[in-house]
Amino acid sequence: MFAAGSLKAAFVEAATDYALSSGVPVECSFGPSGLLRERLERDGPGGLFASANMEHPAILNGGGRSGPVRVFARNQLCALVQPDVEVTPDTLLERMLDPAIRVGTSTPKADPSGDYAWAMFRKAERLQPGSHRILDGKALRLAGGTPAIPIPPKDRNPYGWLMEGRHADLFLTYRTNAQLAICEVPALKLVALPEPLAVEAEYGLTVLNGPASARGEAFADYILSPAGQAALERYGFSNP
Known about the structure:
By secondary structure, this protein is an alpha/beta fold. The protein has helices spanning 8-22, 33-43, 55-62, 92-97, 112-127, 131-138, 158-164, 175-184, 213-224, 226-234, and strands spanning 2-4, 29-31, 47-51, 70-81, 103-106, 140-143, 170-174, 189-192, 200-208. It has 10 helices and 9 strands. Strands 1, 2, 3, 4, 5, 6, 7, 8 and 9 form a 9-stranded mixed β-sheet that branches. The model has no long low-confidence stretch (mean pLDDT 94).
């Protein structure tokens, strides 16, 4: 199984439960969806690909590399905020535009979280002309393939680790990521995007062609089953 990094906690639990019930172990590889898709296009083996968007699985399907694409979960973009930064949903855009506030994001194209952040920037432009240029220019691409920031320890939530290290004042990420970061660094705050800026993330999966496709289909069916959906819900994901 190749899956978006934001799915790690939920999918490790789901894969463990599936292995216990089916007797079939699941080998997991997590990373930014865009980078995983590029790897699978080049030389990836068969199995299951679960992405934080619909675009990357659709590319594999369109290239004859995989089967149909199915929505299996939804998420929401939010702001993960330092404890000393005063911000509410109503003042979020104003604070993001403040030159003194460092805004962290994931890297667009490599990581769908970055693409969703730029979708929010486009919404901000409609509310306040000039916002997109400012936000595009100041956003710090701190995750999803950026080599300039050290790699977080394997036992740490990357967003909690980045914020604990004061790499940003405010980080745009998934609600599920923010919740896990706050479990590690309780002083951090989760601030929801106001309705005019809200961005929903749609997660899609596809089974890769190859000798492991039957096992991939079986695990995909499990993810879409009540048991698999319950595992996702426990980590803050919404039903498709």
